[in-house]
Design goal:
The complex is a heterodimer of chains A (about 625) and B (about 160).
Chain A (H helix, E strand, L loop, with lengths): L12 H14 L5 E6 L2 H5 L2 H14 L6 E6 L11 E4 L3 E3 L7 H10 L8 E2 L6 E2 L6 H4 L17 H6 L4 H9 L2 H11 L11 H10 L6 E6 L8 H8 L1 H15 L3 E6 L4 H16 L15 E6 L9 H8 L23 E5 H13 L1 H5 L9 E8 L5 E6 L4 H8 L9 E6 L5 E4 L9 H6 L8 E6 L4 H15 L5 H18 L7 H15 L3 H5 L2 H19 L14 E3 L9 H5 L5 E2 L8 E2 L9 H5 L5 E3 L1
Parallel strand pairs in A: 1-2, 7-8, 7-10, 8-9, 11-15
Antiparallel strand pairs in A: 1-3, 3-4, 5-6, 11-12, 13-14, 13-15, 16-19, 17-18
Helix pairs in contact in A: 7-11, 7-14, 8-9, 8-11, 10-11, 10-12, 11-14, 18-19, 18-22, 19-20, 20-22
Chain B lengths: L7 H11 L7 H12 L4 H11 L3 H10 L11 E6 L2 H5 L2 H12 L12 E6 L11 E3 L2 E3 L7 H6 L3
Parallel strand pairs in B: 1-2
Antiparallel strand pairs in B: 1-3, 3-4
Classes of the chains: A alpha/beta (about 625), B alpha+beta (about 160).
Chain lengths: ~625, ~160
């Protein structure tokens, strides 16, 4: 893999280009390459075994020179992992196991295809050979994610081979800091962390703020549950983030940077650390970068598992070794941030967009997207959806296209109910808004938000009151406790929602929730509190009938809320197979002998749902 | 622990030196200490406070603020149930209920025999596999309540 080679420091842009040329020359673009996804999703599905098997197979058959192996970050199609792509043809094999490895290697050498491992289009029933023909990928526009499968993230040469750090070289030698800012402003890039603030404007404010030092921060504290875009970029293409930060640092005039990354993402931490080390060795980080006289260092800081640290001032407090509590922002962090100095913080995805803008120009970038939101956005499409995974789409695509064309719709023929965007601070969007074009402003208009890009799909079996309770209790636990509205308000809202889901809701509870929400919106110290009521407000706006069913009829229409649910055995359907008897953890179900329906003792039942899960015949009814 | 136990002072000193005694790295320092001991012993926190020349109250406030830190010894096996949104809508709570019931502890607790510590995490980003339970870093996807018994058995 060439990792043992010591990298020689580059002293000029010419040396960078010479190195790039030599890397490209040493590689045969026609050579077969087996690309295995080593992202967290595929690893959890057993990709490590597949990787080990490929290594052994290639070695034993003496094919190491003929067929190369590349372990990459996430290409996005997590649902079908572990994923293997054979280059240069881009043949996609899905759900690959270590037993399949020998066959894949043999077929690749002979130029053949292993049919049984191809993806089958659920619509047409036909097998699809090439990655780009799979419907999941077809409608995407993968500016950022496409390189994930071309790069071994622990190998800077792979990034250089694709033109990496050329944008940095360009700004250092051909553009003034002001010109870089102008270009980023012109591109219309807005912050991908959720705020949607124009990136170039932020940079300009930071550059112009008085101070001795300027800090550059990359926010990879991706705390939104159900969102993993930033993780995949940091795991899969860390150098694109570093290059973006370097360009930003040059434009702003900063010489010290931090990457704040969630400790729950061990692979992202590791790959970021390796990337920083390799960039330092090549002289792309550190003193006198590429001989330009510009200095920039990056430190990596791991988060401590606090959601609020995704908020910029809380993150900075944590970087100072303090408790991660936010402060009021009447003085912006671009003026006084880390250690009271001007600080520019952007999210991972924002930084990764920067080299693309510099390389291809602001005009090219501004052509993609809608009037107010430019470029692409990565979403993590999860929940009750057939194709779980990461999707990168141009701004302005409709929710329907994302959920049905790319996501493949709802599993088991169930009915779509809502899609939740924007993480815990976002909202639930109902079916009649599915044709909404996705951009910052449109999502705001319906009461939700872009957020960092979580997209959680819910079907008829999801209870909207339960979802609101889930987010509120999540935020209650994550509230830092500094300001009263957030600390106390969320606690009360959480109590009210809990009693509604337990069948103890009272008249006036909805009204009380709305009043508390208004107080939080108006008076919380930071965005965690002021956006916290969104899940409640949107579910009340679009699914008020579900709240009323819980409160008035003591009924959970979706069958989720435990206290309001009863499990029954449908005697007509039950053949007495006994599967549920074995599954029941509390022996509440009794086997009455062959071909006789089982009997469920309601007194003993703890409503865990194990019998419901295990019965394939629909003989367990949830009411 | 396999290696000969170094005295606390020495261990903490090594960690502090690794981070150049940078006060800004307090969170990272505590993470490394926790990796060593499995939790944050009081003695180590005192050493950190002296080593970085910051008040013990500040060390304590950080150690008790972040979810990743434990001030009590934890079990031999750490069970993490993902309660991210995707896992939640796919029934993670029922899996958690079942683990709690079997172990007789609530999330955040440790069994009396110190075999298991049960924790929850807000999304590990492997949403395609939800609900997910992670034990000692090993991921088990698509968990159901009736699979809990067999899963726990594997960790003595």
């Amino acid at each position: 893999m060439g990792k043992e080679k010591v990298l020689k420091r580059l002293g000029s842009p010419q040396e960078l280009e010479a190195l790039r040329a030599s890397i490209v020359k040493s590689r045969d673009p026609k050579q077969a390459c087996l690309v295995v996804c080593g992202g967290t999703g595929c690893l959890a599905l057993g990709a490590q075994k597949v990787i080990t098997a490929f290594r052994r197979e290639l070695k034993e058959r003496g094919l190491e020179d003929k067929v190369s192996l590349r372990v990459t970050g996430c290409p996005g199609f997590c649902e079908r992992g572990p994923l293997v792509v054979v280059k240069p043809e881009n043949i996609l094999y899905q759900q690959v196991k270590s037993e399949d490895v020998a066959e894949i290697v043999s077929a690749t050498v002979k130029g053949k295809i292993v049919d049984r491992l191809l993806y089958t289009d659920p619509g047409t029933g036909k097998k699809i050979t090439y990655e780009s023909d799979v419907p999941f990928y077809k409608k995407q526009k993968r500016l950022l994610l496409s390189d994930n499968s071309n790069i071994d993230p622990t190998e800077i040469r792979d990034y250089l081979a694709l033109g990496g750090y050329a944008a940095l070289s360009k700004v250092l030698f051909d553009l003034s800091p002001e010109a870089v800012i102008k270009e980023v402003k012109k591109s219309g890039l807005r912050g991908r962390g959720g705020g949607g603030f124009p990136t170039g404007v932020k940079w300009e404010s930071c550059r112009q703020a008085p101070g001795d030092k300027r800090y550059i921060i990359c926010n990879c504290d991706e705390g939104d549950p159900g969102a993993f875009m930033d993780r995949s970029l940091m795991e899969g293409n860390p150098h694109s983030v570093l290059e973006g930060m370097l360009i930003g640092a040059y434009a702003i005039g900063g010489h010290e940077g931090y990457i704040y990354v969630r400790n729950e993402y061990p692979l992202a931490v590791r790959n970021a650390e390796i990337a920083v080390k390799q960039a330092e060795e090549l002289g792309l980080l550190g003193k006198n970068i590429l001989g330009s006289g510009f200095d920039f260092d990056i430190k990596i800081s791991r988060g401590g598992g606090a959601f609020v640290c995704g908020e910029s001032t809380a993150l900075m407090a944590s970087l100072e070794g303090k408790v991660g509590e936010p402060r009021a922002k009447y003085v912006h962090t671009v003026e006084k941030g880390l250690w009271e100095q001007p600080t520019n913080l952007n999210n991972v995805e924002t930084w990764a967009n920067v080299p693309l803008i510099i390389e291809n120009g602001a005009d090219w970038y501004a052509k993609i997207g809608t009037a107010g939101s430019k470029g692409t956005k990565i979403f993590s499409l999860v929940g009750k959806i057939n194709n779980t995974g990461l999707v990168e789409v141009p701004m302005g695509i409709t929710l329907r296209e994302v959920i049905y064309d790319i996501g493949g719709g709802i599993p088991e023929g169930k009915k779509f109910k809502a899609v939740q965007t924007g993480g815990p601070s976002g909202g639930c969007i109902p079916e009649d808004k599915l044709d909404l074009p996705v951009d910052f402003d449109e999502l705001d208009r319906v009461g939700s938000m872009m957020g960092s890009g979580g997209m959680i799909v819910m079907d008829e079996n999801s209870c909207m009151v339960d979802i609101a309770k889930y987010f509120i209790s999540f935020l209650e636990g994550e509230s830092c406790g500094k300001c009263v509205p957030c600390r106390e308000g969320l606690k009360r809202m959480s109590q009210i929602l809990a009693r509604i889901t337990e069948g103890k809701g009272k008249d006036g509870d909805i009204d009380l929730l709305e009043r508390l929400s208004a107080t939080l919106v108006d008076s919380s110290l930071c965005a965690l509190g002021s956006t916290a009521p969104n899940p409640v407000l949107t579910t009340l706006r679009y699914f008020r009938d579900e709240y009323e069913a819980h409160i008035k009829d003591k009924r959970c229409p979706a069958g989720v809320c435990k206290e309001l649910v009863t499990y029954l055995i449908d005697e007509k359907k039950c053949p007495g197979c006994g599967l549920c008897v074995k599954a029941c953890p509390v022996e509440a179900i009794t086997d009455m002998g062959k071909k006789k329906p089982v009997v469920l003792d309601q007194e003993k039942c703890i409503k865990c749902g194990a019998c419901y899960d295990v019965c394939n015949l629909g003989a367990v009814i949830r009411k | 622990m396999k290696t000969k136990t170094k005295p606390a002072k020495q261990k903490v000193k090594t960690v502090l030196d690794r981070h150049q005694r940078d006060r800004g790295m307090l969170v990272a320092i505590l993470q490394d200490i926790q990796a060593e001991y499995n939790y944050l012993p009081k003695k180590a926190l005192t050493e950190v406070s002296q080593g970085l020349d910051i008040p013990l109250t500040q060390v304590y406030s950080v150690a008790s603020f972040f979810k990743a830190f434990s001030l009590k010894p934890r079990g031999r096996h750490i069970i993490n149930v993902c309660l991210g949104t995707a896992c939640h809508v796919r029934g993670a709570v029922r899996v958690l209920d079942e683990i709690e019931r079997r172990l007789g502890i609530k999330a955040g607790g440790t069994t009396k025999d110190h075999r298991y510590t049960l924790e929850t995490v807000n999304c590990v980003g492997a949403c395609a596999l939800g609900p997910i339970v992670i034990i000692d870093g090993n991921y088990s996807g698509e968990m159901k309540a009736d699979g809990v018994k067999a899963l726990l058995k594997g960790y003595k």
